[in-house]
Amino acid sequence: MKTSIATVSIGGDLREKLAAIAAAGFDGVEIFETDFLAFDGSPRDVRRMIADHGLTTTLFQPFRDFEGLPEPQRARAFERAERKFDLMGELGAELMLVCSSVLPAALGGIDRLAADFHALGERAAARGLRVGFEALAWGRHINDHRDAWEVVRRADHAHVGLILDSFHTLSRGIEVESIRAIPGDRIFIVQLADAPLLDMDVLQWSRHFRCMPGQGDLPIADFMRAVMATGYSGPLSLEIFNDQFRGGSPGSIAVDGHRSLVNLMDGLRETAPELAASLPDLPPRIGVQGVEFIEFAASAAERGELEAQFAALGFAPHARHRSKDVVVWRQPGASSGPNLVINSEEEGLAHSAYLTHGTNAYAIGLRVEDAAATVRRARALGAEVFEQRRGPGELAIPAIRGMGGGVLYFIDGTLADVWEVEFASLPAPTMPAGILTGIDHIAQTMNYEEMLTWALFYTSIFRVRKLPMVDVVDPAGLVRSQVIESEEEGVRLTLNGSDNHRTLAGHFITESFGSSVQHIAFTCTDIFAASEAMTACGFVRLGIPANYYDDLEARFGLEPALLERLSAANILYDSDGAGGEFFQIYSAAMPDGRFFEVVERRGGYAGYGAANAVFRIAAQKRQVRPAAMPRL
Q: 192 phi and psi, to 5 degrees?
């Protein structure tokens, strides 16, 4: 099945749009009339550009307010259509989208509208063209694909067909099973768009908040299953109206779009096996069992500060790379992770990451079912494979580029001995056995406009689920946050998006020159024992005001003894009301806004202490040196 995208879906001028669309791997393009009218070349110039990029023109759109008009407006509508047919001939476009009229002057009546389309079909056929009728969700008389299909059916013309758009159907809650009754050869093209669930005017919702399939909350897969049941075999095309996308990078948005379509079709293999022939070699979504390591880039001169932070969390040097300036830190006595790696090499990606972002967590190693299959799937979905020169005795660990130019490494059973092969053990420390047992979650902070990109990246490659997006309150503004969790529950990522540099998240993006890991949360089995052990190691914790603990007593009715222990250790608390409890300790924030967290979950608590975020952020901003944070 061919893939296509409307030029309105991405930013830039028409030249930039076509180059990005072709580079992302699309087969075709819908030419949106406004993009053509703003172009400084002829229709034949556009036709040549499209051909030179190896694309086909799947559609010319939109032709508005055509059907059901009284005279003389009706005659004028046909004249306008003839002019557009002239243009389509020069552009090499064979299909035109006619969207249902919104004009107050438009008259209703299925037979009247069908007669108009039969007449239009006659004119299109004389030129070897076709026209497709689309029901706008806010159309005056036709706002439902079922009514649009009835118009097409009664028009009874081979050059007149139906155009289905997932947003127009799903935004109005129209039953998608009704699509199954439409013959597939009468559907001329299928347009797809997702969207977050919002309670707002459908026109404004459509014009500003559409997104790629899989980035929103609409049941796109159900819509497509119904479409495939008709026998439809034409293009799948994206038509996305989104202010954020139009202001973003044309290349990255186009890649997102192609990734979303490939992922959608891959998810339909079982119900529509005919799709498999049009897909690349695509292994199933990959299961993720856990985080194997987090690697930090730090210069030899500055790594001491990072080492002190690790030591304060109870970590100790565990092994040194046999040929590189790389050291693994682990909890004493632990036979496995969590593994924290400090890379102070003066060449390679780690060094480049340090020069760009300063000390930062630039690489994450994930334990997966099949490392090679993970890379194959990621490559097919447009991810950039990462390879770096290997030294003698080093293993080839599959990897792809991740957020902020960093790297995601993949470790499976065949690579589990990397720590013994590439590293030499260091003498065991004399300090007590560690008390941090794993990594609870990793918080990646980014500009808000990147959030949809990275949520789609993770959900299309890995067997993960995304939780509803929430607002985190910073005293200087809102930060949007979305959790990505592996279905095996071994990995949790929190994606935090900010477009306000005065928030702690925005400050971190500014200080680190782009998206990166802002904080890592470790797990423990006894928060109070962990607190005491870290205090003995010199841990500098985030101070929480007494007012917070007074409110805890009022909210949860905690026993005085427990409340006193929480307050004394600056431990934050939350409860889900069903027996689940959550305890959190935060480190003081570094000047750039980076920090660590230690948590304990009890009774099946599944959240992240969202109610505590406003207090935590306010306290962290007080501890960041005054010159580092912009004034409110």
A: -125, 140
- Angle, alpha carbons 576-582-587 (nearest 5°): 140
| Residue 458: CB atoms within 10 Å | 22
Q: Which residues contact 5 (CB under 8 A, 6 or more apart)?
A: 21, 26, 29, 30, 237, 238, 239, 240, 254, 257, 258
DSSP 87-134: HHHHHT--EEEEEPP--TT----HHHHHHHHHHHHHHHHHTT-EEEEE
Structure letter (DSSP) for residue 200 = S
Check: CB of residue 54 under 8 Å from CB of residue 88.
no
Which H helix or E strand runs over 349?
Answer: helix 349-357
Cβ neighbors of 158 (< 8 A, separation 6 or more) are 121, 125
Cis peptide before 468 (omega within 30 of 0): no
Distance CA 266, CA 276 (A): 7
Question: What element of type H or E holds 203?
Answer: helix 202-209
Per-residue pLDDT tens digits for 486-503: 988 789 999 999 988 889
Phi-psi region of 514 (alpha: psi -120 to 50; beta: other; left: phi over 0): left
Q: Is 208 helix (H, G, I), strand (E, B) or coil?
A: helix
Cα of 348 vs its chain's centroid, Å: 28
Tell me the Cα Rg of the chain. 28
- C-alpha 587/C-alpha 558 separation (Å) is 24
315-356 pLDDT, tens per residue?
999 999 999 999 999 999 888 879 999 999 999 999 999 999
Using the CB atoms, write b or e for 140-150: b if 16+ within 10 Å.
Answer: bbbbbbebbbb
Exposed, middle or buried by CB within 10 Å (0-12, 13-18, 19+), for 42?
Answer: exposed
Cβ–Cβ < 8 Å for 340, 310 = yes
Confidence band of 625 (pLDDT split at 50, 70, 90): low
Longest pairwise C-alpha distance within the chain: 94
In 181-275, beta strands by DSSP E: 187-192, 236-238
pTM for this prediction: 0.92
How far is 220 from 166, CA to CA, in rounded Å? 7
* CB contact at 8 A, 154 and 116: no
Q: Are 43 and 91 in contact (CB under 8 A)?
A: yes
